[in-house]
Amino acid sequence: MDEKLLEILACPKCKGEVKWKGDKIICPQCKKYYPIREGIPVMLIEEAKDYEDEE
């Protein structure tokens, strides 16, 4: 995924900053993640899943 795209993406739920990790776009504020399918982030609230930070 392009880093420039990540700079303009925001969480569709809280409008917060998101991070890219593997095949997910993560919102640390909402504790949700959005999948990346075929190189395209699926930033739909109904596609969000709960995320537990392993770090």
Could you explain how this protein is built, in words?
This protein has 55 residues and is mainly beta. It contains 1 helix and 5 strands. Strands 1, 2, 3, 4 and 5 form a 5-stranded antiparallel sheet that branches. The radius of gyration is 10 Å and the shape is globular. The mean pLDDT is 90.
Keyword list:
55 residues, mainly beta, N-terminal domain of TfIIb, five-stranded antiparallel sheet, 5 strands, globular
Structure in a nutshell:
With 55 residues, this protein is mainly beta.
Secondary-structure element string: HEEEEE
Average pLDDT reading: 90
Number of helices: 1
CATH architecture title:
Single Sheet
Rounded Rg: 10 Å
In total, how many domains does the architecture comprise?
1
**How much of the polypeptide forms β-strand, as a percent range?**
25-35%
- Number of beta strands: 5
Silhouette? globular
Highest-level CATH class: Mainly Beta
The share of residues in helices is: 10-25%
Q: Kindly, what is the distance between the CA atoms of the first and last residues, rounded to a whole number of angstroms?
A: 22 Å
Poorly predicted sequence stretches spanning 5 or more consecutive residues: none
| Assembly category | single chain
